[in-house]
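SEQUENCE-TO-STRUCTURE ENTRY
===========================

Backbone structure tokens: a row of integers, each naming the local backbone shape at its residue.

Task: work out the structure tokens from the sequence, keeping to the layout shown below.
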Amino acid sequence: MNPKLMMLSAFGLGILGASIATAGHFDGRLIYCQPSPTGCAERSVPDWVRLNVPAENVRREPGAAGWKLSGAFLAVAGFGAAMNLARSLANQEAKAQKYQNIWEGVNLEKLRIQSQAELEAFNQQAMIQAAELSYAVLEPYDQPLLDGRDSLDVSNQIEATAVSEPQTETDPKFTPWLKSFLSSTALVWGNQGSGKSWFVRLLAQKKVEAGYKVIVFDPNSNAREWEGVELYNTYEDIEGAMASYVGEVMGRYEEFGRSDISEEEWRARLWKDGKAITIIAEEATTYADFISDKDLLSKFAKVSATLSRKQEMPVTFVAHNNTQTCLGDIKGLANLIARMQQIQLLATTDPSTSQPVASGKALIRLDGSTEWMEVSTPKIERKITNFKVGKESDHADKPNDLDIQRELLNQAWQMPAAEPEPLNQPEQETSSSSDERFTPLELPREKAIKLIKQMRTELNQTQVIESLWEVTKGGSVGWKKAYAEFKELIGDGDEQS
């Protein structure tokens, strides 16, 4: 019932009660006729008064004490209820105004966050497009890279890329930055002919050697092309494997939440039990067109991007670009893609065939950083199709200590001579700064400091060290060395981790 109508009704009852309480006589009355020389004068007195005068025709009229008391009670109850309802209405209106203000504030905050995410995604895309233009990787594949562009101021670096020879080396050397793509969810993308498929196969081989169980989603392949790994090459099977992956990750989080062990012990146990699993998701752009359960597809992408690392279940997505469309146009995923670790493999045009070929160059962006760096990619002579490992490479009996397991991961990669360098590298450096290198990326001091400061906008000190140096906080030699190098770069003024 309407509270205002109830208040008015209670107020009306109070008025009615007050009217009853003030009407009539409380006591009974004695009405009599007093004789007089001129006749009989009618008189009345309360019925409790004794008549001491002559009286005739005496009669008694009862009083209205009961009605008056009931009216008074009704008046008090009605007015009291009306006051309480009025006070309650006032409080409700105040609360409603308060909640309205809070709701408006929430809406404004949601709009602010949405605008900020869209702005970050726009800035990220603008940065990528600028890099593509700078490195001339979007040239048409049916003509040489520099045809018709004499009027442009093309740098020596781009010219060198344009005439790069096809990859022919049979024993590729591996750079430290490649290790970060071993255990982290990442996006591998590039134009046709950039070499992303061969690169991903090399990555899969190294994951197998490191001890991962490798699962491949590739709707355009068959078991002969992926010997030694678990392959799903129909969209129906891929959908089922996605559901299993999401359930496994969420189940591990629930199990870890019920356990009483540290995160390091938990991850070491996963390795010991052979539960380190990684997925290579080829042709990710096509999933939205052929997988019927869109909600599952969204969960798979979001779970792999946010929850997979601590459960040792990283996913490598392979696509033609790094927009939201490349992962099925899943709503709300643009911000996750913008923060995801990525590598863009750059293509060039073979002068003799006018066909796109891998240039041996790539742009990478690591976790926690928004800066893109140019690196040299491994050269591969043949496409890898056999991922079986011998007994000497089998890690079935994995150590309990996670530091030892990570050492196995490091041993799976050969350390390179090539040095990744950030974009916009200064033309000249002093001899002292050029000889001194920091972090596993072997960056000059200024570039290392710049990268760390960029990562600190998203991560705390411990997370930066663990992500950039690939170590775990604790008393290990690797952690102490990384921490000392971090302090040397940033200074002792930074807070302790």
